[in-house]
C-alpha cells in the first residue's frame, strides 16, 4: 500500500513536538475533543430530515447559534465553517455596494483585502503607530481615525484589528464612539480574541464594547477544531439579511457538522472552565514574564507596554525577543523547536510569538519560559552579538490603480529589484501571520523590497515571491 502522506507527516510532527503554543486552541490535548474526536464518523452527517441546515436553521443549529450569541452578549451569532476569512468577507460585502469606500487598519489580515477585490471597493488606510524602539506596531491613533472620517465623509465602513497578532489592543470602546459619531459601521476583526469575553483580566471584548460586527476565530484561542469561526452581529446598524445572503453565497453548501459541533462545544467548555483556567494561566504568565524581564529578557508585558505608550495588551500572548543578543526571532523559534521540542505560532525578524490558551497547563507555560531563560543564559556568553533592528514594514502606500483592476490585469514575473517602481499584480505577504506588505494596485518601493529580502534571508516565507525570487507586476 502506498504511504499515507498526510497521516505520516502529522505523526512525524507529533513525534518531534511535545509542547505547542500555536493554534488550534485545543492544543491536541486529550479530554477536550474526546466526544467529537473519538466519534467523527458518528457526527459527520449532512442536511436531511431532522438534522437542520446551517444556511436556513430552524432547529438545533438555530438553538446553538442563539446559545453562542447569549454567551458573547451579541444580538445574533453565526457559526462559520469556512474560517474567519469567510466571515470577514461576508460581513464587508454584506455592508457595502460595489464602488463604496471603506477605511481599514493597514496591518489587517489579507481576507479584508480579498473582500475589497470581490466587492470592488475603494480603500483608505489607517496606519498603526510603529514603535521603532521595540520594532512593533503599537495601537492605532484614534485622533487619526477621527480625522480621516472628517476628511473622507464617503467612507461607509471601518475595519479594525483587535487584538493584533502580537496582542496589541487599542481603546475599542472609544473607537466605536468615534465611528458611530460619523454614522459609519465598525467591524472588528477579533480573530485572535475569541477568548477575551471569558476573563476580566483580559482587555474588553469588542462585541460588548460598541462594535457593530465582530469576526472571531474560535479555532485560534478556544478549544475548537481548525476552521471553526464565529461572526457576531452586535447592533441594529447592520443589515442582517445582506450578511446572511453573503454567508450563504460564500460558505460551503455542505457545511461540516463536526465543525459546527466543535464550535458550540468550545463555547460550552469556555463557559464552564474558561475563566478559572485563563485567570490561572495569566497569573503564571505574568509571574514568569516578570522573572525573565528582571533578567533583561525582552518578553512583552501589559504594564510595561502601557508605560511605553501602548493602550493595552493581551497577556495570553507570549511575545519574546532576544534581539539585544543578535538572535533573530526565527532563530529563537528554531532553537525552541529543535532543541526543546516546543513549537511557537510564528516568528519575524525580531520576535517569536506563541499563544497561551485556557487548555494549557501551568507547567506548559513554565517549560516555555524556563527554556527561554536557559537559551538566554547560554547565548549571553557570546559577546560578539549585535542588536537587531526591526524594519518598519509599511511605508505609506501609493495606489496606482484600483485593487480589483490590478488583480485582474495582465501581469508578468520580474526579479525583486526590477519590481521597484512597478505596480503589484498580487499580494506580497509574509506568512504567517498573513498581513500584506503590498496589495495589488500599489506601487512597490525599494524599502519594501529590502524588507522582503531580509525576511527571505532569515527563513521567513513570503507569499507572492516564487522560488526564483520573482514576483508579479502589472504589464
UniProtKB/TrEMBL annotation:
Stretches assigned to the Orn/Lys/Arg decarboxylase C-terminal domain: 366-459
Domain Orn/Lys/Arg decarboxylases family 1 pyridoxal-P attachment site: 8-317
Keyword Lyase: yes
InterPro entries in the cross-refs: Orn/Lys/Arg_deCO2ase_major_dom (IPR000310), Orn_Lys_Arg_decarboxylase-I (IPR052357), Prn/Lys/Arg_de-COase_C (IPR008286), Prn/Lys/Arg_de-COase_C_sf (IPR036633), PyrdxlP-dep_Trfase (IPR015424), PyrdxlP-dep_Trfase_major (IPR015421)
Enzyme class per UniProt: lyase
Gene Ontology MF: a single term: lysine decarboxylase activity
Keyword line: Decarboxylase, Lyase, Pyridoxal phosphate
Pfam families xref list: OKR_DC_1, OKR_DC_1_C
EC number assigned by the record: 4.1.1.18
SUPFAM superfamilies per the UniProt record, alphabetical: Ornithine decarboxylase C-terminal domain (SSF55904), PLP-dependent transferases (SSF53383)
Cofactor(s) required for function per UniProt: pyridoxal 5'-phosphate
Keyword Oxidoreductase found: no
Residues making up the signal peptide according to the UniProt record: none
Family: Belongs to the Orn/Lys/Arg decarboxylase class-I family.
Protein name as it appears in the record: Lysine decarboxylase
Originating organism: Sedimentibacter acidaminivorans
Amino acid at each position: 500500500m502506498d504511504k499515507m502522506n498526510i497521516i505520516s507527516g502529522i505523526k512525524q510532527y507529533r513525534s518531534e513536538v511535545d509542547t505547542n503554543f500555536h493554534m488550534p486552541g485545543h492544543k491536541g490535548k486529550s479530554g477536550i475533543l474526546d466526544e467529537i474526536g473519538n466519534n467523527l464518523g458518528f457526527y459527520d452527517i449532512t442536511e436531511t430530515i431532522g438534522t437542520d441546515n446551517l444556511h436556513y436553521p430552524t432547529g438545533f443549529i438555530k438553538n446553538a447559534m442563539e446559545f453562542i450569541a447569549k454567551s458573547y452578549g451579541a444580538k445574533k451569532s453565526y457559526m462559520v465553517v469556512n474560517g474567519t476569512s469567510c466571515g470577514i468577507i461576508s460581513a464587508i460585502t454584506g455592508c457595502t455596494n460595489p464602488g463604496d469606500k471603506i477605511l481599514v487598519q493597514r496591518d489587517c489580515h489579507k481576507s479584508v483585502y480579498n473582500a475589497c477585490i470581490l466587492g470592488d471597493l475603494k480603500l483608505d488606510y489607517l496606519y498603526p503607530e510603529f514603535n521603532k524602539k521595540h520594532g512593533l506596531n503599537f495601537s492605532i491613533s484614534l485622533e487619526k481615525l477621527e480625522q480621516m472620517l472628517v476628511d473622507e465623509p464617503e467612507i461607509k465602513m471601518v475595519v479594525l484589528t483587535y487584538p493584533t497578532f502580537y496582542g496589541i489592543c487599542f481603546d475599542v470602546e472609544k473607537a466605536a464612539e468615534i465611528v458611530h459619531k460619523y454614522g459609519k459601521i465598525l467591524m472588528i476583526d477579533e480573530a485572535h480574541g475569541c477568548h477575551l469575553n471569558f476573563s476580566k483580566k483580559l482587555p474588553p471584548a469588542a462585541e460588548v464594547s460598541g462594535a457593530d460586527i465582530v469576526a472571531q476565530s474560535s479555532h485560534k484561542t478556544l478549544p475548537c477544531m481548525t476552521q471553526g469561526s464565529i461572526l457576531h452581529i452586535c447592533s441594529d446598524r447592520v443589515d442582517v439579511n445582506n450578511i446572511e445572503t453573503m454567508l450563504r453565497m460564500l460558505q460551503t453548501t455542505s457545511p461540516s457538522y463536526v465543525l459546527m459541533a466543535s464550535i458550540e462545544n468550545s463555547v460550552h467548555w469556555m463557559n464552564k472552565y474558561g475563566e478559572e483556567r485563563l485567570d490561572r494561566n495569566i497569573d503564571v504568565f505574568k509571574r514568569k514574564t516578570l522573572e525573565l524581564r528582571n533578567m533583561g529578557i525582552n518578553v512583552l508585558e501589559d504594564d510595561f507596554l502601557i508605560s511605553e505608550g501602548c493602550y493595552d495588551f493581551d497577556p495570553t500572548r507570549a511575545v519574546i525577543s532576544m534581539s539585544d543578543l543578535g538572535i533573530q526571532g526565527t532563530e529563537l523559534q528554531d532553537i525552541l523547536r529543535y532543541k526543546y521540542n516546543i513549537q511557537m505560532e510564528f516568528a519575524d525578524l525580531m520576535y517569536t510569538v506563541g499563544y497561551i490558551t485556557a487548555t494549557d497547563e501551568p507547567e506548559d507555560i513554565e517549560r516555555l519560559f524556563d527554556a527561554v531563560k536557559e537559551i538566554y543564559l547560554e547565548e549571553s556568553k557570546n559577546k560578539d552579538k549585535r542588536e537587531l533592528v526591526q524594519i518598519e514594514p509599511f511605508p505609506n502606500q501609493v495606489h496606482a490603480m484600483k485593487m480589483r483592476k490590478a488583480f485582474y490585469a495582465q501581469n508578468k514575473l520580474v526579479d525583486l529589484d526590477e519590481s521597484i517602481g512597478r505596480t503589484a499584480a498580487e499580494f506580497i505577504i509574509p506568512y504567517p501571520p498573513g498581513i500584506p506588505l503590498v496589495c495589488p494596485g500599489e506601487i512597490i518601493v525599494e524599502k519594501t523590497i529590502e524588507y522582503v529580502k531580509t525576511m527571505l534571508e532569515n527563513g521567513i516565507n513570503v507569499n507572492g515571491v516564487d522560488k526564483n525570487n520573482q514576483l508579479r507586476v502589472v504589464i
